[in-house]
Each structure stands twice: as C-alpha cells, then as structure tokens.
Amino acid sequence: MLNMQNKKDNTFSLRKIPISKKDTHNLDISVEDFDKVKILELSNLIDKWEEELLFSKDGFYSIKGKNIEDKMKEFIKELDSFILKQISLMKFQNEESKKIALEIKRNKVLAIKNEMQKYEQEQLKEWQLNVFEDSLSSAISRAVLYKSNEQIILSSFKNAHDVIRLISQKEKWDNKTYKAKMEEFNSRFYYYLISEFIQDKDSKAVSYFDKFKDFLLKDEKENLEKNLKEFKVNVIGFNFAKELFSYKLSDVEQEKELRAIKDEEIKNAVKKFLSEFISSDKKQKIEDEKKKNLENWQEIIDIVEQDIDKAYLYIDYSLSNASINAKKHYISSMKKYKCIVTDKKKFIDLITELFEDFIAFKQKDISDFQASFSKEDYNLLLNFQNLSIQEFEKINIDYKYLFSQTKDINFKKQDDKYDFIKLIFSSFSEYKKNNKKEADLKARNEIIDLILNRFKENKK
Fold first, then answer.
1. How far apart are the first and last CA of the chain?
2. Among 105, 131, 330, 331, fewest CB within 10 Å belongs to which?
3. What is the pTM of this model?
C-alpha cells in the first residue's frame, strides 16, 4: 500500500529546475502539444484515483475475506464514470486526441481491473480456507462436547473428512499430501477426544485409546500414553484409598495396608488420596460440630428466656466438655445475674486472634463465648467473623493505625484496653447510624484521634 503522507515533500517539480532566458521561446505550447498535455493529465488523474480510492485506509485493498465479494464491480464502475467525466471536461482540440484518451482509459481500466481481480481471488481463497479450518475445528469441538454420544462423534468425524476432500479438490493436492493431511486430522481428532475423557476422569479414555491408537501420530500417541498411565495410577489409587478409608482403620492398621502395596506409584497415589479423604472428613466433622453447637446454643438461649429451670435439660451432652461447661456457666450466670458480664481478658485475647489470623478466626467456632461475653460484645465479634476479606482489610488498617498511636497510653489494666477498643468500634457504629453510611478513611481517623486524645487526657 502506498504511503500517502508527506506527499508534498516527495513531489518532483519542474519549477525547481532553472530555465535560461534563451530557452524561454521553446515554452510556447502548440494546439497539438496542448492535447498531449491534457492526455498526460488524464493519465495522472487516473493514477491519483487509483492511489486514493484503492490504496487508501478504507480503499479496495483494505477489504478482507468474504467482504471483497462484488466490491470490484463497484470500484470499476466508479472509475469508468470518473474517466469519462474527465475526458468530457478536457475538450480536446482534435478528434484523434479523444481517441487516444479513450484508448488510455481502456488500457488503464484493464490493468487496474487485472490487479483488483488478483487481490479479490486471494481474499476469497483466504476466506474459503478459514471456513474450511473452522469446519474442522468445529467437528473436533462438537465431538468433544458430545463425547458420550458415539453417533455424534462418528458424524463429526465423517463431516470433517468431507471437508478435507473438498479442500483437496480446491487446492489440487497430490495423493501424498492428501494422505498426510487426513492422518494429521485423524490424530488431532482422537487426541482431543481422549484427552477430554482423561480430564473428566472417565474410564472411556482407556477403551478409546485402545480402539483408536493407530490413528494417532507418534508425538500425540506418546503424550496420551504418559497421561493415561498417570490416569490409571490415580484411578487405582483413588478407589483403593476410598475403600481403605471406609474401613476406619487405626493408624497402625492403615500403615500395614499401605506397606502391602508393591507398586510405588500406586502406593504414593493411595497415600495422597487417603490424606485428602482424612483432611476432608476432619473439616466436615468440625463444620458439623460447629453447626450442632450453634443450634444447641440457640435452644439454650430460647429456653432460658421461657423457663430457665428447664434449661439444663436442653444441653447436648454429645458435644465437647468445653461446650457443655460453657452452657452450664451461661445458665448459672443468667439465673443469678439475669445477664452475662464480659470477661475482658477473653475478649481482648479473641480480638488479638482476629487481627493476627483473620482466616483462622473466620473458621473458629466462637459460639461458646456467649457464656463469657455480653450479648453486645458477642454480636460485635460475630459481625467481625462474617466480614469479607476486603471488609476486614479496612478494619485491619484502622486497628494498626490505632495501636501505632497508643505508645503514649500505658494500658495497665485490661479494663482500660477493653474500654478503648469498645469505644472505637461503637463510635464507628454510631457514625453509621447517624449518617446512614459507613465512615470513610478521613472520618474514621478523626474518630480515632478524638478517642486517643480523650484517653491521653485521662491518663494525665
């Protein structure tokens, strides 16, 4: 494509060539010469049209693929009309000059048309090849998506072969090329299909490989053999570990069973899956226990409000001793004081846990702290536990800033530190209540600074 920038700089000008005075009489233009110049001007105009309408950013040679279809006719028709108009405007002095101009038109249009036809054929051929390639890719994708339907797999395979034969005819492949292309596609087709079965941990991967391995090229066959070996080891390891886990053996008995496995790869796979089963089971038991404890606490709280004398009967004695004792303490305190007074040391310890490891705190069962914290303090910590990681980060920034500014305050008593922390977070809640929105960074810092100054003054 021609570069249309800086045309003035690149233009050749006869005016720049000095002419001597004795040659000035040669510049007189005859009628015949005048027509010749017009003919040359016509040729220049055609070249300029070609440059600006064919090679421009949005011109004919910028059109790609199928979009080129029928565009040449439009451009040639416009060119023909443009040249005829220019010829009519030039008013040649003799008829012979007009004939020459029309001959130039015919030759120029023919030359431009030939070049445009070449480009059109290239683009249409490129489009055809892209359609063919898309058809082959779609055949593989369809087979993979419907991998459980053998009829669709077979249909996709046959359709792809029809496309390859069509490409062969269009491209005029020889037998050797045709055979190589077929083998390449067949290998790719079954490679992706079997790989998908492996990915889904489907045992069909093995049967499909045994059935179609002769269709696979060397590299793809070796790659699948390696993956299938690993797949078989994992399947055997998974099933063995699942069965072994179901027996609920002791550690000693379990180790004895593992030692009996002779194949090291399978043994390692069994160990890996067994470890995952044990870990998953442990997590599930913790979650189940947590849920069970929380539900029992709600039962205890409800019955304490209705008939506190019966509350001990609702304690779930299948839970841990710590949970049972916490509930007994809660019932006893409610019976004696009608409320729970916060254990400030436990509160500060739990707040410290919160900011030291938020993920661990989120997973922790804090329901037993209802025996040690007032309802307000327990709900505060429960709200912290339900924060997202992003929400916690904002609170964590406040906390770090807060205690970076407390060097001048010596919290000698747990009460002072407890009061300080409670006042900060209750002030944030009060701000939200009064302003109908969360405090931004500036507002939070102002609240913190105000409380810090108050505590410093009190210390003085």
1. 84
2. 131
3. 0.55
